Amino acid sequence: MPDSTKQVTQSYYKTYKLDNIDDSLKLELKEKCGIDIETCLECGKCTGGCSNTHIFDFTPRKIVQLIKMGQETRLYHLDALWTCVSCQLCVDRCPAGIDIARIIDFVREKAIKRGAEPTRSNVKMFHELMLDEINKTGRVGETVLMIKFNLKRGLYFENADLGRKLFFKGKLKLFIPGIKNIGQVRRMFNSNPVQREV
Amino acid sequence: MDSVKTALVIGGGLAGLEAAIKIGQAGHKTILVEKEAALGGNVAKLFSSFPRWENPVDLLEYKINKLKECSLISVMTGTTVKFAQKRDKSYSVELLSTTGTKNKIEVDAVVIATGFELFDASVYGEYGYGSFDNVMDSLQFEAKLKEWSENKENISPPKSVAFFKCVGSRDRSKGFPYCSKVCCMYTAKQAGLVKDLFPDTRCFVFYMDYRAAGKEYEEFTRSVIEQKHVRYVRGRPSKVLPEDGRLLIRAEDTLMGVPIEITADMIVLASAVVPSHGTKEMSKLFNAKIDQYGFIDHEDFNPVKTGDRVFYAGACGFAVENLGAMHQGAAAAAEVISLFNQVD
What we know:
The complex is a heterodimer.
Chain A: H1 4-10, H2 24-33, H3 45-49, H4 60-68, H5 72-76, H6 80-83, H7 89-93, H8 100-114, H9 123-137, H10 142-153, H11 160-168, H12 182-191
Helix pairs in contact in A: 9-10, 9-12
Chain B: E1 6-10, H1 14-25, E2 29-34, H2 56-69, E3 73-77, E4 79-86, E5 91-97, E6 102-107, E7 109-112, E8 116-118, E9 135-137, H3 138-150, E10 160-167, H4 183-197, E11 202-207, H5 217-226, E12 231-234, E13 239-243, E14 246-253, E15 258-264, E16 266-271, E17 273-275, H6 277-285, E18 305-307, E19 310-312, H7 322-341
Parallel strand pairs in B: 1-2, 1-7, 2-3, 7-19, 9-16, 10-11, 10-16, 11-12
Antiparallel strand pairs in B: 4-5, 5-6, 8-17, 13-14, 14-15, 18-19
Helix pairs in contact in B: 1-2, 1-7, 3-4, 4-5
């Protein structure tokens, strides 16, 4: 969750220089995903209905706008790439029929290939740890995941009290048995991995 | 030109009235057919007009009086055109009245003025049109305005009214890609009227662009914002939720880039203008040229001609304002008159 200082630091403005707009991402989206970004009417219907704007650094409309403005490099460092849950509400409501969830997915892949990290939070680390967990055991063990996330960030006791409460209510299990055919899951991971290229 | 020629005008709205009056005044026999019991079409449903806040009833009364003054015009209300057959230089047309009487006539030219309908906004599940009582389209709201003005004292004013523009227009996924042209202006008018009736009611207009391309239009819209204090919010609403008997609107203020919520008592949808049922039928009967949406289209570089001896006027061609409907009605009449006056 963003704290108030982070929101304040976002609120000053740097000039975007539009002299040499880079259209490559726009063209790529058209070619590979069949999405025409220029049909966007800039109406904000996507953002008005978005269920996760309260944890976004950039809203769906602004993400589309960034692509229009050719600000590709800014895009790769957005938190919103990783906090978007792909609920497709924006896609359903968009009067221009732009598949925003697909765009975010596409940009996500590109961000991984470039090794770009979100600048605001370590949400990407959380994603990686979760996928790692699935790769190892075939399912998500919440306790292990939370502990690993805390250890990796150096915040050893964050939410520890909440964890304790959940544990005593029987909501958190310490040991989670792996699934039977873990090989099938791993094959999925290995068949078409998105990996860092640059 | 010794033989008497007859023109058939289909539709008794503003454009049809204008065409019939002009043809009749020029000395030709005119038959005006209207499917409803009364003349006036959609204009008769309006409470006020833009850009001069004139009462459309006055305008219609004036036109209908003109119509009655002319003995060459016969008006047939409650009548529809059922069948048409092209002859060499005329059409033989079968009329059917609501009483069930059939009537066969021979006409030398036809003016289609069958007007428009509003897009059915219930395809937008997110707006709740058809499921929430206080979500209505703009023509229903004009009736509401009439009702309010008639017994203003006995009505508890709504705390806030929200207007959604571009419902079905400028939407290629669920509606139509075109701009319906008149919604920006009549929404400004309706919001202004609410403020006139109930100054304490808050009015919000959700817009993407406000289009005021016309004489006095920009001044009209600005006056609604500046003098009547209607709040314009830039963004397309995303969701309407019922909350404690009121309606919660979720949207984005795209100028601030933040999600917003507004609670309203009533929501008015400026639904897209679409070709009426009658327009579709008549274009088939008279083999009129139509565009991809079903609006009547012009041909031969002639702005009101749509087929052999077939002309059109008003909103059956595309959304049009009162003044534009009268222009087109007069232009169609001029075409009919010049056709009738040609020496064979």
